[in-house]
Specification:
3 domains, Alpha-Beta Plaits, Rossmann fold, 14 helices, RCK_N, Trk system potassium uptake protein TrkA, 6-stranded parallel sheet
Length: 466
């Protein structure tokens, strides 16, 4: 695909890294020559220095040849105008804009051309702050989880857990796990990471302490599965402290209030603290430094069940998160965008480190996939990928329709998680026969296999697309 990325900030850079690795023709536009030079030194991309909403700059970026425009600058107006220009100048098929302002996000009708042909021509609006908020809320909903991803309109979920000491499942073979779950509870382990290495989840593999296990199940079954994987009953997440009262922290507190959690926010900016204090009803607002030990102790940090570090500074999030953990907080989630920082974080200090860039790129990933990919999401900080793909064609044109899962020559390093047929979720086993219009959710431990998967799902008469 020919893709133009406007903005070489964190999100734009993350997208460029992802897309250039997959043999796309990528052009990045930014005003900062230094950033562009650094990108071009590392990646096989083209860069152009200039303003993202300048028609001449878009022409220089070959907007006439672009399949996709992704506007990720820090300025909402620039991103919206750039998408409008791309539509007028070329009718660019897919236009994606990063938008932060609630004034735009609260009025989706401005961008819905199905309802109004005069609407702003943007196919997808992305708000990294909103995506991070939703991601964290999923982690809160399942205490102890490392990652939660929905598929098939939330009919099925992939959830990652670390196997703790004392779990009944330690040293049990995967094929025997069903014997340790209540009747009617179905799950499928789609991947295991052991000391950073992939362990393919065959029936004879035994779970070990500290394994990172990705399992798939319907939402109603997940709490029971979590309880079975843990060694003891988890402490309910009742008292939550949020470091940072920016867009993410504020919106998290707003939602957590509705869910009847007890919430405290610490922010260093007195004006911001006053503003959010006036708009939140139950949340306690504290003006101060999130890494001030005496302040945390004074605010009874030892009574906090969950500490969320979501300031605009990676360093502040890491330091405050590690301090909170040392002071007795059971669970710490920190927003850390710098990959090198994430690699240095000791697992015993911060339970979950999340990246706004990776969450955002994952949200857009299925637009870059071949075949009818409904959703694709990177896992383990981009090391793996989960996909939901629709099966099209007939037995005469498809390589998989009419065949049982066990008969199909799947690419190596993938696990089939489930098949969704209309509203029915079937946890995968080798005797399920694939039918046209089935949704198949699968896990790739090697993301480079995504193209091989697409080739299986695209009917013969459409292989010229590849």
């Amino acid at each position: 695909m020919n893709i133009i990325i406007l903005g070489a900030g964190q999100v734009g850079t993350s997208l460029a890294e992802l897309l250039s690795d997959e043999n796309n023709d990528v052009t990045v536009v930014d005003l900062d020559q230094g950033r562009l030079r650094q990108l071009q030194d590392r990646l096989d991309i083209r860069t152009i220095t200039g303003h993202a909403s300048d028609p001449d700059i878009l022409l220089q970026a070959d907007i006439e040849e672009a399949d996709m425009l992704i506007a990720t600058t820090q300025n909402d107006d620039t991103n919206i105008v750039a998408c409008q220009l791309a539509h007028v100048m070329h009718k660019t098929p897919t236009k994606i804009a990063r938008v932060r302002s609630p004034s735009f996000l609260n009025h989706p009708e401005l961008f819905d051309r199905n309802q109004n042909t005069d609407a702003i021509p943007i196919n997808v609006l992305i708000s990294p702050e909103s995506l991070v908020k939703d991601y964290i809320l999923q982690l809160i909903a399942y205490p102890g989880s490392l990652q939660v991803v929905d598929f098939a309109d939330s009919k099925v979920r992939i959830l990652a857990l670390r196997v703790r000491a004392g779990s009944l499942l330690i040293n049990k073979e995967i094929r025997d796990i069903k014997n340790h779950l209540p009747a009617g509870i179905e799950t499928r382990i789609v991947a295991i990471y052991r000391k950073g290495e992939v362990v393919m989840p065959t029936g004879s593999v035994r779970l070990r302490e500290d394994d990172e296990v990705f399992f798939m199940a319907v939402p109603n079954a997940i709490p029971t599965i979590i309880k079975s994987l843990r060694q003891s009953k988890l402490r309910p997440t009742r008292n939550i402290m949020i470091a940072g009262g920016g867009n993410i922290g504020y919106n998290l507190a707003k939602e957590l209030e509705r869910q009847k959690h007890k919430v405290k926010i610490i922010d260093h900016n007195i004006e911001r603290a006053r503003i959010i204090a006036e708009t939140l009803d139950e949340t306690i607002i504290i003006h101060g430094d999130v890494s001030d030990k005496s302040l945390l102790v004074e605010e009874n940090i030892d009574e906090i069940d969950l500490f969320l570090a979501v300031t605009n500074s990676d360093e502040a999030n890491i330091i405050s998160g590690m301090l909170a953990k040392k002071l007795g907080v059971k669970r710490v989630i920190a927003l850390v965008n710098n990959q090198s920082y994430i690699d240095l974080i000791h697992l015993n200090s911060i339970d979950v480190a999340i990246s706004a860039d990776q969450i955002t790129t994952s949200h857009l990933l299925h637009y870059m996939r071949q075949g009818d990919t409904v959703k694709a999401f990177t896992l383990r900080r981009g090391a793996a990928e989960a996909m939901e793909v629709i099966v099209h064609g007939s037995e005469n044109t498809s390589k998989i329709i009419g065949k049982r899962i066990g008969e199909i020559d799947w690419p190596t390093d993938i696990t089939i998680g489930c098949v969704i047929r209309e509203d029915h979720v079937m946890i995968a086993h080798r005797d399920i026969t694939i039918e046209a219009e089935d949704h198949v959710v699968l896990f790739l431990t090697d993301r480079s296999r995504a193209k091989d998967v697409a080739e299986l799902f695209i009917p013969k008469e459409k292989t010229s697309w590849l």
